[in-house]
Amino acid sequence: MPVRLPESHFVARTMQALELLAMHPLSAPQVAEALEIHPRTARRLLTRLTDDGWLTRSDDTRRVYSPTLRIAALAGHVVERNAVTVAARPFVHGLNEEFGAAAHLMVPSYRWVLCILHGADGEPVAGLRELAPCHATATGKVLLAWRDAWRESVLAAPLDRATPRTMVDPAAIRDAAAQARADGYATEDGEWRPGLRAVAAPVFSGTGDALAALGVAVPHGRDLPTAGRLVARRAEDLSSRLVADG
Known about the structure:
7-stranded antiparallel beta sheet; 246 residues; 17% strand; 2 domains; Arc Repressor Mutant, subunit A; two-stranded antiparallel ribbon; globular; alpha+beta
């Protein structure tokens, strides 16, 4: 008689499959290999997700699966109502007004960071915004500094150079992460986009890894370390509010 696996096992496999497919289309055998499950199990799972509208399947011989925008819509609702997003609004707005430049809250997303709250010229807007390379941005470097396992997973594969100033050497990135932890913030100076300068600091909701990074673009003429220390204080205040709110 076959052993019936707990429902939590199938839920976990479903979420893992969606995470895999969010990065690039895959066939059922490829999903099965990545999740270490039987191909028939993977095919049943993917067929159900397709029937329910979460995935589409190509009509060619590859028969690969891709997520639909239903997932993006769901994620957008999560971001809009998330306690971290709500608590961060006044901090993002305050940095935008103080620096006269775009401010944002970013979270890790595989080898990138994802903006979920953007403040520029008015009330901050929550949602799924741009992806940025974690190793080339202040927000990304902050999260690399305070998320050890994630940092090592990112550094396990070659990094792309966005500009001539982009740091791609793993040893140099580890050194930068150690410096960010010592300073309490990270900086960016033309490493992602020429001329763009920014600072960012980690946001926590208790013990453990940083869950987000609070950052702001820094206009030329303003000192980056001074701006970094200011943003670090704002990030500490935001972290304290999150802890207090439970």
